[in-house]
Every structure is written in structure tokens, then in C-alpha cells.
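Q: Make up one entry.
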Amino acid sequence: MAFALVGCVAAQAAAPVVSNVRASQRAGVKDVDIFYDLTDPDSTSLTVWILVSSDAGATFNVPASSFTGAAGGGVSPGANKSVVWHAGADWDGQFSSQCRVRVIAHDADPQGLVTIPAGAFLMGDTLSEGTPGEIPVHSVSVGAFQMDRADVTYRLWSNVRQWAISVGYSFDNAGLGKAPDHPVQTVNWFDAVKWCNARSQNEGLTPAYYTEAGLVNVYKTGQWAPSVKWSANGYRLPTEAEWEKAARGGLPGKRFPWGGTITHNQANYSSSTASAYDTSLTRGYNPTYAVGGMPYTSPVASFPSNGYGLFDMAGNVWQWCWDWYDGTWYSNAGATQDNTRGPAGPMSYRVLRGGSWDGNAYDARCANRGLYTPALALDYVGFRCVRGL
């Protein structure tokens, strides 16, 4: 195999930097040696991913997962970091003179917040391949906000929930997680909203959700369509417009947060031949995570982030949004208002975004709009929080 190399700078404050990437196949064997330099001004433990392309970097869809050495979590900065890709285990019998290697590094802790910059973006299905509810494409201006870098983990959910119950909160569902670092799932929309308030109060912030228009009584129990204090500095669910702007990662008009095709190296989803843009070499559930019984979730931040440094904006678990779902909303003048917050409601469904481990490539598109009754709690639905600035 012939290799050309790419180092990637992670898109977040004080980001780690990958440089001086080199790779070559060992003579006579099916192993590839990869070397790179890694610097970071404020972290001693980083997460490193290796992606492999067979088409000169047009797509990184080689099913490369068998690595030893300085890949995965707990990698320290330094020069001449060494990784061995056991190519015979992942890609036996294949050869290409157009191979490329991409090395990506991120700060190890995925549970922080990322600032999404203010600005306008084109919202909706720019590729004319979705449902009528994804059109017309329209420009939306969204103010700056912060978003959880990753889905809320079962560990974080459980810690906040335990505290919340001690101060008068109640939840419809206890929430589940395959492991502490996997996303929480089996939580309904009401659970997620109340948990946002509890997280805010636990951190000394002003809650966003209240039981009445006067914004006096913090929403803690029951099933309400709450009023929102949009100026609060506490946590809340993203609006649908905030979610899509964040998911696109600054790349306009792309199908997915990173580009136009999807593989099991990029997301935890169920692959099939139904969509030409699903170019994964493995089909069905992601083979790395289809173990130990359903749900086949993956640890948060198991895949490279998008341009804003956000993980799992496609696949793993669907994410609850604030908005009521209206299939004709994009034709409404309110959809183009600055910081649009969706239709007034009440309606039957709330919006879900992002797809899941159980969903297909079509579901994982940035423009795709899911919908569920807010009382449903399913093992492929979770959430993440945002905060206003």
C-alpha cells in the first residue's frame, strides 16, 4: 500500500494539534506503521482516532479498527507517537496505491460545553432527498450558545437525578444506560426537561423551565408544556434550529456533519444498501458495538467530532429538541425569524434529531426531522443540553 498522510486540528478552544504524520506498510506482513506528533497546551490525556482512505482522501471508509499503540483514549502529547494498524485483520486481501491516513485528536473529557458561534445558516434538505417536512430550505439566524460536547451520559444523568429527587423532583423514568460512559436512554421529553432544570439548580444556575407563564414555579414534577425563560443561564433542550446549526459544524449543504457519505467508521447506526451515500463496508448494526445485547449504544465520543467539536450528532441515540413538530413549519414565516423556537403548539409530537444505533443512514442526515410523543421513552432516544450566552 502507498500512503499519504493528513493531520487534523480539533475544532475547539486550546485544541490539540496533530502534525508530521507518517505511515508505511511493513515489508512482507499485513501491518502498517503510523507515526505522528501530538501537542496540546492544556491537556495531558487525549483521545486519538485513526481513519483510513483507499481513494486518496475522498472518503475515509476503510473499516480500520484494529490498532495498537498510541490510539484511543489516554494518549499523552509527544513527538513520534507510534500506532500499528493490523490491516490484515480489517482489510485482508485489499490493496490500493491511493491510501491516506488521517489522525484526529480531541481532549479526552467529552462532557464539557462547546460554544456555537452566532450566525445564519441554511436549514433544511438542500439535497432534495428527504420528506416534504424538510423543505423549503430557508435561512435562519441563531445567536451564540453553548452545547454539550456529547450526549448526556448515564453517569451524569444518574448523579444529577439522585440529587434532584432529594430536592423535590420526580421523573417518569429512571433512565437506562449500557455503561456509565454510554448515553442515557429510555427517558422521555418531560424527563429531559426536568433534568435540565435540576442540572441548572445543582450548579447554581437559573432554571429555564417553569410551570406557568409568569416564570415563578420551577418545573419539577408531572407532565407539562412548560414556559421557558429564554434569558436564563441554565440548561435547556436545543431548539430545532440550534440543533441543526450545531450538527452541520460550519459545513453548509452537507448531508452529514462531516460530508456526503457515511460509514461505520464515522457513526453508530444500522447500515444498509438502501441509500447510495451509505458506503460502509460493513452492514447492519455497527459491529464494534453490536455486543452484549440491545441497545447497541456506543460510549459517547467514540467517533470523530464535527467542525464545532461536537460528538455523535449523527447516530448513537436520537436527541430530544424543544420544538413541537409541524410538518408544514418550514413554509411558515415564523421558521425564518431570528432564533426561531418552532410552532406555538400545543401539538401531538416533539422533535427528535440525529438518528440512532437502530436507525439507518437516512435518519442520520443533518436535515432529517424525527418526531415522537413527548411521553415516550425508548432505548434509542437520549438528549444533550444547551445554554444561552
